[in-house]
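## Example record

The block below lists the input lines for one assembly entry, exactly as stored, with component labels intact.
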Amino acid sequence: MPAFAAEPGAAVELSALDIVLWGVLPYVMVVVLVGGLVWRYKYDQFGWTTRSSQLYESRLLRIASPLFHFGLLAVIAGHFFGLVIPMAWTQAVGMSQDFYHFNALFVGGIAGIGTLGGIILLIYRRRTTGPVFMATTGNDKTMYVVLTGAIVLGLWTTLASVFEGEHGHNYRETVAPWFRSLFIFQPDLAAMAAAPFSFHLHTLVGMALFVIWPFTRLVHAFTAPLHYLFRPYIVYRSRDRDRAGGRPGAPAGRASNVPARRGWSAVGTRDRDTRNR
Amino acid sequence: MRVMAQMGMVMNLDKCIGCHTCSVTCKQAWTNRAGTEYVWFNNVETRPGQGYPRRYEDQEKWRGGWVLNKRGKLVLKGGGRVRKMLGIFASPVQPELKDYYEPWTYDYKTLVDAPLGDDFPVARPKSLITGEDTKITWSANWDDDLGGSAEHGHLDPLVEKVRRESEDKIKFAYEQTFMFYLPRICEHCLNPSCMASCPSGAIYKRVEDGIVLVDQDRCRGWRQCVTGCPYKKIYFNHKTGKAEKCTFCYPRVEVGLPTVCSETCVGRLRYLGLFLYDADAVTAAAAVTDPQELYDAQMDVLLDPADPAVQAEARAQGIPEDWIDAARRSPVYALAKVYKVALPLHPEYRTMPMVWYVPPLSPVVDLLRDQGHDGEDAGNLFGAIDALRIPVEYLAELFTAGDAGRVTAVLRKLAAMRSFMRGISLGNDPDESIPEAVGMDGQSMYEMYRLMAIAKYEERYVIPKAHVEQAHDLEEMGCSLDFDGGPGMQDSAPFGEASGRPVPVAVETFNALRDRQTSGSAPGEATLRGRVNLLNWDGTGSPPGLFPEKALFPEKGPEPDTLAAAEDQP
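Predicted structure tokens for the full assembly:
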């Protein structure tokens, strides 16, 4: 175990549990998330979809889904602002702690409540609309529990600081340094351990969400079609992949004769993609 | 000039009897799966009628296709890229299941299982979506044959428009009504708005034959294509969460077979063939200002395959010689551009559709006959077409963005053809004045008659095969087609008949179907390498192996030795 820098939360005694939760688990989470995404992208392109239920019901979805998704985008932006940007930077540009706090509460609170309202409405719709409920899998239900849990706990940490006011916990001195330290592989466990229980719980449920992410319908977020803004409207594809944009009848180019690997077959017709090459 | 080949279809609406065989066979072939219960890649609508999904032609509501913006540039009616992205979380105008219909089945089991009682057991309708009892209120062809038109007829968006513009000319009173059938598949447009709407870029047009397909692996279920397609021919599979559409039966077309809907069409009203077109000119053609000039613009995009300059350019672009030859013999090019009797469906959507329609003359002929006139006399017919403004205006809304003159010209050609050929059939000298009246000559009118009335299988479907050197890329095939003589049967493999790789199903089907079309006997006889293939058996004769050979069962009971010996034989 490396010696941990004794900075803000140096007084806190580190337990083995702290080390596992804040030193090991985040990396396990990243491995599962990235590995899971790579695996699913390679082997389950066909299952990689939003699984939209708009065909069954549109009226509630039209309100709830944008509310939830746009709220979530704001929440993600808020997390970025709070966790990634160091407090020293915001102070350097002259943003007072009070002003930051007010902003975080006001904007964060609105985004959080919007997101929560959106997902409650979505779950209500899912439960009460017959066809939508029929199309809900066990996987979906687990995902909804974790997702809603993460949102509720996150909102709790935000609202709690409203009531605690001046004495509220400043997560930018505990959670945020720990979060940033994870990226340089020197996790500041002491800082995180000093954070209150509500933040711990929110972080853990958040990590659970990322762990199940690749294996649920949430994956659609990772293929947000940003390239649509730049691609040409009309897409041509050649049947023969070796001559994309080529013409029929031109000499067929058989590419390198890569033998098919045994075991798992990647997405696509094995015959077409591998065996005949 | 960038010459590209495009598979196209022409449907002669005069011949459509509305039997829905195309829809049924298409559904059996492509959409008999969970999640596509409500999906009909091919559907037949009775017009006037609301169509399927209901009122899909009301683009002010559904916002499909393209429009010109203030600067005259082509933009998606549903909104630009940014707008589409903002609407991605809940597609703003996506038809719901109720706009199609709630698919159902019947509880047939009750008929068998019901305990003895005083009442007859009933097979209740059950929703295929919820599994609950349901009340059937609509279907893909609920208003078939004008069923309920007195009540629903005014809901047809085209009827609404024509009524607005010509003061209540379309009536649904029994004596005054008219109707015809409109079979619809995906238009495989040159300028597809579904493709332009797809955020994932999963919808693509094949370079080789212009068939528009959805890459099921790339599709993420954003559903913008459903909105984008003005013909509403992209469907959302609610089980897989992916978009699906008519495939132009590409596995069949690749081996030279017509699509299932064409193959099974009872009226033989469908024609398949190639267009050569200038891909660089498409966008400009789709952006002409006056919607009524879109037809001409589309005509200009289609290139003359008999023109040596076009041929040379096609060769330079790598289009193989047999494809150029097929384009020269293309029946769809002949009907669309040479005779100019086939019209595109809703050119005003600016998608450059590639499924064309010969408008129906029959309502006119029927009406003349009912009124006691000679329905096939040229003079009567010409007069009636002009006088009968009702169908012409309606047809114009369908096929020419409201240009009634163009539809009249086509109908006059069809009427002239009937009169001209009737004269010949009656043994009179050909009356050249009739074709002249519609700007044709006797010879070309006779050729048009041959193509439209008595063309054989090979003339109606001129489908060049995909090339053998590309065959390894054809979907479904586990092996290449480079057997002896290209796509051909091998009766024996090096190590006996079961050895080697199996013949691809498409090849087997291709040969079996060719047998059926060209011979009177049962297909597949003696060519199936000892297997029984009931897939292609149409009830004519009996394929070998269906019944045990009689010699194996001598009358006086089997002798163990003979039977054992017989079993050893393959």
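Chain B touches chain A through 65 residues (CB under 8 Å). Chain B has 25 helices and 15 strands.
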